[in-house]
């Protein structure tokens, strides 16, 4: 501790002029060197440091202004998006309402069309049944007529002998000849 106080006391005592040498007392030389370096830095660095701080301040202010402009732009975009969303929701509600009424109309139209188609099919079915009945009746009539005709021919063939057959043919030829004279 005595060396430290001695070094501070020796600051007031300068070596005689003309002698040059190294001062090995670190504690005595450092405060002087530091004060000189700090003085030079403050004197010459004050302007540079002020310029750096002013530039930094301007960059920070411009960044804040840009951020505020971006925030205002984002708020405007958000409001426009909300307005568009409201419009789209209103249009969706309108489409939904119109869609439901359109669906009901289509449902009624489909029911009516199906009913009309079923009615037409019922009419076609009835016409087809009537046609098939008429055809069946005509087929039965033809068979009955054929069977009656075959029965009549069979009865005639069994009842007629050659002489009766010859007289019937002669009588029919006579009738045809009389008809031929009437026509001429």
UniProtKB/TrEMBL annotation:
HAMAP family registered for this protein in UniProt: ATP_synth_b_bprime
Keywords, in A-Z order: ATP synthesis, CF(0), Chloroplast, Coiled coil, Hydrogen ion transport, Ion transport, Membrane, Plastid, Thylakoid, Transmembrane, Transmembrane helix, Transport
Further comment: In plastids the F-type ATPase is also known as CF(1)CF(0).
Transmembrane segments: 32-49
Family statement drawn from the similarity comment of this UniProt entry: Belongs to the ATPase B chain family.
Protein name: ATP synthase subunit b, chloroplastic
MF term (GO), any: proton-transporting ATP synthase activity, rotational mechanism
Gene Ontology CC annotations of this record: chloroplast thylakoid membrane; proton-transporting ATP synthase complex
Subcellular localization(s) per the UniProt record: Membrane; Plastid, Chloroplast thylakoid membrane
Xref: PANTHER family: ATP SYNTHASE SUBUNIT B, CHLOROPLASTIC (PTHR34264:SF8)
Record carries keyword Signal: no
Function statement: Component of the F(0) channel, it forms part of the peripheral stalk, linking F(1) to F(0). F(1)F(0) ATP synthase produces ATP from ADP in the presence of a proton or sodium gradient. F-type ATPases consist of two structural domains, F(1) containing the extramembraneous catalytic core and F(0) containing the membrane proton channel, linked together by a central stalk and a peripheral stalk. During catalysis, ATP synthesis in the catalytic domain of F(1) is coupled via a rotary mechanism of the central stalk subunits to proton translocation.
Pfam families, sorted: ATP-synt_B
Organism the protein comes from: Sisyrinchium angustifolium (Narrowleaf blue eyed grass)
Ranges in coiled-coil conformation: 64-98
Superkingdom of the organism of origin: Eukaryota
């Amino acid at each position: 501790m005595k060396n430290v106080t001695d070094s501070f006391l020796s600051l007031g005592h300068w070596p005689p002029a003309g002698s040059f040498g190294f001062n090995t007392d670190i504690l005595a030389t450092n405060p002087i060197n530091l004060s000189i370096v700090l003085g030079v830095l403050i004197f010459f660095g004050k302007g540079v440091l002020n310029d750096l701080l002013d530039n930094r301040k301007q960059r920070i202010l411009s960044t804040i202004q840009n951020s505020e402009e971006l925030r205002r732009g984002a708020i405007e975009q958000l409001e426009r998006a909300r307005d568009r969303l409201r419009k789209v929701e209103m249009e969706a509600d309108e489409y939904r309402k119109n869609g439901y009424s359109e669906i009901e109309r289509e449902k009624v139209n489909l029911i009516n069309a199906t009913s009309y188609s079923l009615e037409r099919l019922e009419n076609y079915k009835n016409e087809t049944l009537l046609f098939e009945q008429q055809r069946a009746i005509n087929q039965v009539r033809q068979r009955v007529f054929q069977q009656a005709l075959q029965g009549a021919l069979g009865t005639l063939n069994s009842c007629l002998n050659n002489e009766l057959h010859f007289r019937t043919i002669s009588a029919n030829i006579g009738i045809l000849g009389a008809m031929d004279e009437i026509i001429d």
